C-alpha cells in the first residue's frame, strides 16, 4: 500500500472513531453515573459506579415497560422480516424473469414508493378503516409496505445473476412455476436474503417514528419509545435515559458487527449484472 493509501486509511479510521465510537462511549459512561453526575453531560469518569443499580431501575420502570417493549419490537421485526423475504423474493423473481408491461408498471410503483414520502394521515385513515390502527398486526403491515421496495430491488438484482438455464432445465423436468421459485431459485438467494434480514431487522427494530404515529398506547410500546420514560418537561433522569439507550443499542450493534461482511456481499452481489 502506498503512503497516500495509509494516510487515507488513517483518516477514515479517525473519522469513524469520532462519529461512531466516541458517542457510544459517552452514552456508556453516563449510563454508569448517578443522576447528579449524569446531569452535567460531560465526558468525565463517574465518581461512583452505579451500573447495576441503573440497569435494574431502567428495566423495572413503569412495570417493566422495557421488557414489554422488547417483546413488541421482536414480534414486529420477526413477522415483518418473514413477510418481506417471501413477498420481496416473489415480486423480484416475477419482475426479473417475466418481463411484461404489467411487471414494468409494478416496478415503476416500487421505485415511486422509494422516492415518494409516506403520508401519515391517510395511512392512519386506512388502518382505522380496516380496524388495524393501534395493533401490532397493523404495524407489521406498515413495516412491510415501507421496506418492500428496497427488498424487491435487491432481490431483482441478485436474481439477474442466476442463469436462466436453471429455470429452463426445471421446466423440462416438469416443474411448475411455484416449484421453480421455491426449489430452484429461492435456495440460491441465501446471500441476499441474509443481507435483507440483517439490514431490515436493524431498521425495523430501531424505528421510532412509525410506532409513534401508528401504534399509540402503553401496551403497544416499542423499544425506541421507551426513551420517553425518563424525559419530561421538568425532570429528566439522564443516567437512566443513557442506560435505556445503551440497552436498546447493543442488540442491533452486535448484529451489525457479526454480519457486516454478509451485508456488503449481499448488497454488491447483483452489481455486475442488473
TrEMBL record:
Record's subcellular location: Cell inner membrane; Cell membrane
CDD domains hit by this protein: TM_PBP2 (cd06261)
Residues spanning the membrane: 7-29, 69-93, 105-127, 139-159, 180-205, 240-259
Gene: ugpE
Subunit structure: The complex is composed of two ATP-binding proteins (UgpC), two transmembrane proteins (UgpA and UgpE) and a solute-binding protein (UgpB).
UniProt protein name: sn-glycerol-3-phosphate transport system permease protein UgpE
Pfam families: BPD_transp_1
Organism: Histidinibacterium aquaticum
Annotated ABC transmembrane type-1 domain residues: 70-259
Topology of this chain in the membrane: Multi-pass membrane protein
One Gene Ontology cellular component: plasma membrane
The family this protein is said to belong to: Belongs to the binding-protein-dependent transport system permease family.
Family annotation (PROSITE patterns): ABC_TM1
Keywords, ordered alphabetically: Cell inner membrane, Cell membrane, Membrane, Transmembrane, Transmembrane helix, Transport
Main localization (coarse): membrane
Top-level taxon of the source organism: Bacteria
Entries under Gene3D superfamilies matching the protein: MetI-like
One of the GO BP terms on file: transmembrane transport
Function: Part of the ABC transporter complex UgpBAEC involved in sn-glycerol-3-phosphate (G3P) import. Probably responsible for the translocation of the substrate across the membrane.
Amino acid at each position: 500500500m502506498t503512503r497516500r493509501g495509509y494516510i487515507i486509511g488513517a483518516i477514515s479510521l479517525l473519522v469513524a472513531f469520532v462519529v461512531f465510537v466516541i458517542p457510544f462511549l459517552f452514552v456508556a459512561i453516563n449510563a454508569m453515573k448517578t443522576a447528579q453526575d449524569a446531569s452535567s453531560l460531560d465526558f468525565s469518569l463517574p465518581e461512583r459506579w452505579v451500573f447495576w443499580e441503573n440497569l435494574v431501575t431502567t428495566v423495572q420502570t413503569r412495570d417493566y415497560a422495557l421488557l414489554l417493549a422488547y417483546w413488541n419490537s421482536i414480534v414486529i421485526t420477526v413477522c415483518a422480516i418473514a413477510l418481506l423475504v417471501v413477498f420481496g423474493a416473489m415480486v423480484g423473481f416475477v419482475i426479473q424473469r417475466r418481463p411484461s408491461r404489467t411487471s414494468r408498471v409494478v416496478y415503476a410503483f416500487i421505485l415511486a414508493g422509494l422516492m415518494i414520502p409516506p403520508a401519515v394521515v391517510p395511512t392512519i385513515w386506512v388502518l382505522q378503516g380496516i380496524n388495524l390502527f393501534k395493533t401490532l398486526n397493523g404495524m407489521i403491515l406498515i413495516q412491510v409496505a415501507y421496506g418492500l421496495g428496497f427488498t424487491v430491488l435487491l432481490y431483482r438484482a441478485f436474481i439477474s445473476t442466476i442463469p436462466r438455464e436453471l429455470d429452463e432445465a426445471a421446466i423440462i423436468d416438469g416443474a411448475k412455476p411455484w416449484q421453480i421459485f421455491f426449489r430452484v431459485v429461492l435456495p440460491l438467494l441465501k446471500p441476499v436474503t441474509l443481507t435483507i434480514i440483517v439490514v431490515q431487522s436493524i431498521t425495523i427494530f430501531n424505528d421510532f417514528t412509525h410506532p409513534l404515529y401508528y401504534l399509540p398506547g402503553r401496551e403497544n410500546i416499542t423499544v425506541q419509545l421507551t426513551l420517553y420514560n425518563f424525559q419530561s418537561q421538568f425532570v429528566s433522569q439522564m443516567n437512566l435515559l443513557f442506560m435505556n439507550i445503551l440497552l436498546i443499542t447493543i442488540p442491533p450493534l452486535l448484529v451489525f458487527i457479526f454480519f457486516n461482511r454478509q451485508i456488503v456481499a449481499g448488497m454488491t452481489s447483483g452489481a455486475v449484472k442488473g
